[in-house]
Amino acid sequence: MEGDTNGWQPDPMHYYRSKRDAAHQTVASKYKIVGFISSGTYGRVYKAISKDGTDNVHAIKKFKPDKEGDVVTYTGISQSAIREITVRAYSYAS
After folding, report:
1. Could you tell me how far CA 38 lies from the centroid of its own chain?
2. Nearest residue to 51 (alpha-carbon basis) of 76, 33, 77
């Protein structure tokens, strides 16, 4: 086959991923975790303080991975968790 190098194809998402990853900030780089608040169905909630100089206090939820049998997978956030986030965001905005 012409132009085929052992079946390798360039990743069409390479540019997007490299740009996204370069701009990504970790939670640890933005917040200082100062304590554990609680855990629930979807994950654990931690108390954190902003590192941006404002010292604002935040609650940060670390979502649990999905577990099917003995296999742990990170498939994204469940629809129920999305609803919980929406409700929380709406209640704090009011």
Report:
1. 18
2. 33
A 10 A CB-CB count for 94 gives 5
Residue with tokens 């780089």: 29
**Domains of the chain (ranges, CATH numbers):** 28-93 (3.30.200.20)
Q: Which neighbouring-strand residues pair with 57?
A: 49
Q: What's this model's pTM, rounded to 2 decimal places?
A: 0.59
Residue 54 host element (H or E) = none
Radius of gyration of the chain measured on its C-alpha atoms: 19
Going by C-alpha positions, the residue among 59, 68, 74, 64 that lies closest to residue 41 is: 64
6-58 tens-digit pLDDT: 667 778 888 888 888 888 888 889 999 999 999 987 789 999 999 988 989 99
